[in-house]
Amino acid sequence: RWHAGRVTSPQVPQRPAVQSLPAYVPGARADLGRAHKLSSNENPFPPLPSVRDAVARAAGALNRYPDMFATELVEALAAKHHVEAGSIVAGCGSVAVLGHVLQGFCDAGDEVVHAWRSFEAYPILVQLQGAVSVPVPLTVDGRHDLPAMAAAVTERTRVMLVCSPNNPTGPAIGHAELLELLAAVPERVLVVLDEAYVEFVRSEDPIDSEQVLAAHPNVVVLRTFSKAYGLAALRVGYAVTHPDLARAVRTASTPFGVNHLAQVAAMASLEAEGELAERVEAVVAERERVAERLRAQGWGLPESQANFVWLPTADRTVDLASAAARQGVLVRPFAGEGMRISIGEAAANDRVLELTRAWGGA
Ligand code: PMP
To answer: What is the value of pTM for the model shown?
Structure first.
């Protein structure tokens, strides 16, 4: 067997921007027979039988390349969002689509403004592109500080990333505040609205992304099949934007980025939207129950509009997350800050509530 220790060290210079980056940390993997995996904001329900059957039938064609532009899926998504097909770009998860957006619009040294803490892939993707990440702290209640984000825009700003609901804290941005932000940001700045968890939003003033896109040609909306649609393993996400901007994202995209099984499963899921919506309702109901119980236990929580809650465990985070793992509950710790706990099935959520009661509120 070949191994690196037997050969001389490579003399190939590495990009400093890459060497200094932390690796993306996925949620802990689990022996699903034994542990409650609440570390990756997945859908706790297994695939619908109709989706599983469609994937099984499609497995007969694996020797062929998929449709490079996922034409059928793109057309179905265009119909769903009331846009032309040229406005949609699909990719290998919305994280890959975001990478292609940054490749399409950022040169070395360009600035990308985003909230922090937010989705941890943001600064990594930005720096991989040679661009400069400009993090803007969240407010104390875990929300995007939109006036501060607008104020962070400079001549070098090319992109602003807006995450609603915000991963990992949970609050959603309102439609009116988003419009205020868009009015304050120059139209030359591309505003990416990452709506990975949008299906779980039940707020009073939800963002109407169709209206936003129609009025603001500098906006890109990102959506995913990984959360509400339950297809995390197959990796499908997409962007919706003005066709001129979509062309740039498509040009930067990995060829054949959405594999055949993913295309078929996503199509079958769109056909089963009613059934999937019932599952989303069940998760939302559990989120409300968990949040209410946690508050009753004395925890101060940001208002989650997603399929997870943020527990402010501060300095105790790593110890408590390890203790939870030993007891079969996997969460996503952010050392010194808090932990993100996905909403699972009722039994898993009950286990969480037992643990948090024992830990005492904060
Ligand atoms: N955006 C946000 C805010 C997320 O939390 C995630 C998943 N953790 C993604 C994008 C990426 O999702 P995917 O690549 O599975 O579509």
So the answer is: 0.96
Cite the residue boundaries of each domain of the chain with CATH code 3.40.640.10: 49-271
How far is CA 79 from each of CA 82, 83, 87, 242, rounded to the nearest angstrom? 5, 7, 11, 15
As a CATH number, domain 49-271 is: 3.40.640.10
pLDDT tens-digit map of 178-217: 999 999 999 999 999 999 999 999 999 999 999 999 999 9
Query: Is the minimum distance from the CB of 163 to ligand 1 under 6 angstroms?
Result: yes
CATH 3.90.1150.10 domain extents, the chain: 31-45+274-359
CA of 45 to the centre of ligand 1 (A): 18
pLDDT tens across 123-179, in order?
A: 999 999 999 999 999 999 999 999 999 999 999 999 999 999 999 999 999 999 999
What DSSP string describes 76-117?
HHHHHHTS-GGGEEEESSHHHHHHHHHHHH--TT-EEEEEES
Task: Give the number of the atom of ligand 1 that is nearest the alpha carbon of residue 96.
Answer: 14
Assigned CATH for 31-45+274-359: 3.90.1150.10
Say whether the peptide bond before residue 217 is cis (omega within 30 degrees of 0). Answer: no
Going from the Cα of 194 to the center of ligand 1, the distance in angstroms, rounded, reads 8
Using CA atoms, how far residue 290 sits from 282, 297, 301, 311, in Å, is 12, 10, 11, 11
Say yes or no: CB of residue 195 within 6 Å of ligand 1: no
Evaluate: CB of 167 within 6 angstroms of ligand 1.
yes
